[in-house]
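Re: the 139-residue chain
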Amino acid sequence: MEITRYKEKHQDQVVALWQACGLTVPWNDPVKDIQRKLAKDPELFLVGIIDGIIIASVMGGYEGHRGWANYLAVKPELQKEGYGRQLMEALEKKLLAQGCPKINLLIRITNTQVIEFYKAIGYKLDDVVGMGKRLIPDN
């Protein structure tokens, strides 16, 4: 798998990947999320490509205090082959190069398969409550 920075030509494939992985929800427009990402830290938006086809993605961010990983996705038929781990390692290296001391994740509590994946690559549960407030509705 070649890991490279997201380019606008990747949009349709990335959105299809996110849909195939069940990462899209009605209250988040994936195209708007991509456009917002391209305006901030676009170098932390990575895709994994095999034979010209996007098979994985991760959208990273760093605001000076903590790093974040969102939209980690691997084509369902290629999951559990190490591609997600490779993408997270690439993101971690980029964040570390920027001086990022820690990465935070938000995972739906019902998504036990993803929780187990992150545990397997060294992430631990933090004793925190995730909260959010939508400032710009997408729908």
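The radius of gyration is 14 Å.
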